[in-house]
Design a protein that fits this description.
With 259 residues, the protein is mainly α. The chain is built from 8 helices and 8 strands; from the N terminus they run αααβααααββββββαβ. A hairpin with a 4-residue loop joins β5 and β6. The model has no long low-confidence stretch (mean pLDDT 88).
Length: 259
Amino acid sequence: METPKNDKKIAVAVYIILRLLVVVCMIAQILRGNCNNVFLCCLTLILFTIPTIVDKKLNIKLPSTLEICVYVFIFASEILGEIQNFYGIFWHWDSILHALNGFLMGAIGFSFIDTLNRIDKFKLSLTPIFIAFVSFCFSMTIGTTWEFVEFSLDHYLGKDCQKDRLVTEISSVELDDTTNTPTKLKDITKTIIYSDHGKKKTVINKGYLDIGIIDTMKDLLLNFIGAMTFSILGFLYIKDRDEYKFLEKFFPIIKNLSN
């Protein structure tokens, strides 16, 4: 196993490499005149400072493994996902990131409550199952809040963060206003939308356009899986810290606290 010093060197190397790649990408987007992507690059560079801010301002030390995961997650979502369109090229790219987000947020939530639980001055005596439950709830809260952000961006700024998708069947009570019984349409092959007071006609082939509902539910389910996975591992870690010692690489440490 690598020493903490070697782990830190790797984290620094990953940080430098990814930061250089973002700068190169930003220069390319400037030359193309794509202001939106330039903003995303600047945002990524700012997000890369999160571990340092957490360390210096909040007095919380991120283990090198978790720090690397944070850098890779930010780069994969903003640069690869948005600018390089990995969300469109690779069908499961968004799914992987949401599951990873659930896992990482579970790790952060778990470490905070576990650390406080072991500090005498806080006088907490929480069972392993309760700590695991709190970490799960923390992760799901973060995931749900992010879906609120995506909805707000779509609704108020006209974005498409909650990706739409084609479906071939729908069920709704709105299709029959005389009863409250859902009407189901199957094998939908085409949808025609009239807009601008009927002046504009848009044809959607191969189905009906679902407006983000399926994507949101999928994201929350994947966040659930990631959160549940770490909660179970965290529970096992508390029960036997020696057996699951490798999980310490994902636990942030609150500095200057003693038992």
